[in-house]
Structures are given as structure tokens and as C-alpha cells.
Amino acid sequence: DIAFVTQQLSQFLSSPTQTHFDTACRVVRYLKGSPGRGLLFRRDATLQLLGFTDADWAGCLDTRRSTSGYCFFLGSSLISWRAKKQHTVSRSSSEAEYRASSFASCELQWLVYLLVDLNVKCIKPLVLYCDNQSALHIAVNPVFHERTKHLEIDCHFVRDKLQQGIFKLLPIHTSCQLADFFTKPLPPKSFLSFISKLNMLDIYHA
């Protein structure tokens, strides 16, 4: 629940300002006000690996770089999540979303290897959800156009995983995109709603 704000604050560790200090104090107050909030891991959850990937196009006002975010569930339990600023400036929202998909695909591949090492077999196909139709089309389009050639490395990586059948890349409505929580600041009502969807509970108010 603090992944996005810590990602933002970590960029200014070498030269923080009063604004950054005030924001950090708000984070500490939030943590102090909810000491019992955490993740719930159900032992009767189905062994299906689900992932959500999203990007906030040109969200950084200083560099205009996009922020990638992903989260992965094993059944109903959140097991992996991350928010990270992209290394390059994306010229379109489709490019930002596709780079985020490539970023999430690497994590998904690692999770697959980890589950194999732990002798955990997923009983259902692995699914990665993306809410950008253009990014989905790029993933399945075998032809590179002029506007997608600069994405070739990311395209080959994601496309290879799709062709190998490691996971399925499926569309999802923006309102159901859980990775949105990791790419931008949210108002209190939306923030609390996403916390509930991520299956975070407070043991003192359960």
C-alpha cells in the first residue's frame, strides 16, 4: 500500500527537500495509524497465478518518464508487487503500457521458476491482464511497423513467452486494473477500495 510513494521518495534520497520530508512524515503517520494492516494468505486458495500490469504515461513532471506497476496473486493472495519508473521516455501510452508488460513478464517468468522449485503446480493457466488495447495488439502482431521498431526487444521477449504458452495476455477494464494502484497517487476513497481488492486486512478491525 506504500509501494508507489516509497518509489517516488526514493528518487530524492541524495537531496531531499522540505516537501519530501513532509511526505515521508505522512507515510510514517499512516503506518503508525494502521499497525495491524497486512496481507492475508488463505490456505484453501486456488493455485492460479494471476498478474496485473499498468503504466502511468509520462507521469513524472520532471522527466516525463512513465511509471510501471505490477502485482501478482497466487489464488487470492498477493505475493509480488512493484512500482518502478521506466528508464526511457515513452512517446505514447501504448509504448509505456507495453514496456510495463515486458517488465511484468520478467517477474512472471521468475515466479514460474520459483513455484517449480517449490514443487507447486498451478492448476489453471497463467494470466497477465493489461488494460491497453494497443499494447495487446502489439503483442500478437508479427509485423513491426515504423512506430513499433524501437520496441523490438521488449516485443520479442513478451511475444516469445506468449508463443511458448507460459502465460496469456488478456484485456481488462480500467476500473478493474489492480496495478493502477502502483502507478499513481489515489484519493482516499479509491485508495481504501484498492487496499480491499488487494486482500489487505487489519487484524484489529477484522
TrEMBL record:
It comes from the Eukaryota. InterPro entries: DNA/RNA_pol_sf. Coiled coil: none annotated. This is Copia protein.
